[in-house]
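Message: A physicist's question: would you kindly supply an amino acid chain plus fold tokens?
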Amino acid sequence: KVKDTIEIPPQLNATQNFKDRDGFIWAATSEQGVYKLPISYDAITSYFEGKRIAKLTEIDEVVYVAVEEEGIYKLGGNKPKFWLKEKDRLHNISVLNESICYNFRFHLVVERGGVFKRIEIPDLTFGENLLYHKNSYFMEGNSGMSMLDSGFNFVHDFRDHHHPYYQGLFRQTDSIFSFSLKKMLYYDSIKDEFLAYKNERIQKKLLTITSFRNQTYIGTEGDGLYLFQDGKLQKLIPGDQAIINNISLENPNSIWAVSEGSLLHYLNNGRGGFSVQRFNQINGFPTNNVTDILIRDNRLYIGSTRGLNIINENEIVDTIDFSPYIEGIYVNGIKTQVDSTLFRKYDPNLSLKVNYGSINFFDSNHTTFRYRLDPIQSIWTSTESGEVNLYDLQPEEYTLQLQVVHNNESKTMSVPITIIPKWWQTEMLAVVLSLAVILILLLLLFFLLKYFRAKLFRERRLAQLELKALRSQMNPHFVHNSLNAIQYYIQRHEVELSEQYLAKFSKLIRQFFDYSGRQNISIKEEVNLLKNYLEIEKLRFEDKELPHTCG
């Protein structure tokens, strides 16, 4: 018995087909490779087929659907009910001051009690949004901001040289906020003007705003999703570069958004942050041209250029599978087979090239590649082609981390690389050289100590010899005899001889001390010393002939 029938596009000329566990159909062809076909859902409800949906809004448990070139429908049951005929494009639907306001570009339709009132103000565009605050209406339109009174009469606009451009309008904690380019503003009711709000700002142009109780979510053109809460602006996912066209909140932990025709689902990851998943036609949606999204009672209302589709969010299959894989490793331009770790000897001319990719059959435009080389790189480096080139790797154990990022989720694989050092780069050589240096230093220290000890010994020996020489020159008997001779002359009252003897004796003593501090004296000085000595001796012996020779 046939359980299910699946139609394969005949233009593929598929030779073999099968259905995987996720519901995808794989079709193999003889000439064009393998195709992965989208999931098909049986529980999709469709309305307004072939028509462009401009806006989806829920008011009092009723879904309002704006169909371009037709008007507004109310979807309360299983059948749409035509509600307001209008060919102009609808920008926003809101409940203000007990009225439902429909914002079109150049006019406003106010519904109260089933009665519609059309309001037009010359040279004024109603544009994106309308808020009621303290008996006045604030209106965002054509990149400007205007104030209307309670009867929708023009009061004034807020365009000035400080803030020539306004975009976005929302209310939180009884205050009005907007943006001027990237800078956040707030309305000062006393000065009746918009002023810069702290230093809060976004990094890209604002595209859409949605409020949920005391939270406001802000979609940007290439900087992801922001949350404004408790007076602080914070980015939901750091590094997110998604373009957010429209936002629908299921709850603070589950946020749906339209991004360039696809759907993004921001989910609280339970670790104090958010992760995001992307869904498009490969997930079973009828089109990749989504224009608006509304989540209500676990059902996704998906507006597109081809109509309105309703699907239970629990039936959507996550198809993200983007694990990285190695395409090839090249050493000096030669492809190399690597089992686990890449071993290479150090070479200053060594070059490594690693090509890697990701298995992603349906959303390669939102897949990016980056890498880093641990331990010398801590910052990821992006590579568009999935090619990594490494040069001049020093001897070390490295880990090349290859990462694939898809919608702010990442998967990483590692390639161990070991550069083996040359013999002169090894640790053993460093140890041997260190020991040799230490040995040389020890030998040098030993010889220095030996030299200084010998020098000290010589100096000490020299001092001893000098002292001995001094002692030999200053013979105690000679000194004693000389002093006795002086005493002798004094007792005999031979004053002149005693003075002469004393002068010669003091001169000789002075010569002894002067010459004792010198290592060498001249022969002339030695002869003078001896002459002085002999003269003293002659005086002591009273000019007796003393045989002597002084050359």
Notes: The longest strand covers residues 409-420. The CA atoms of residues 439 and 445 lie 10 Å apart.
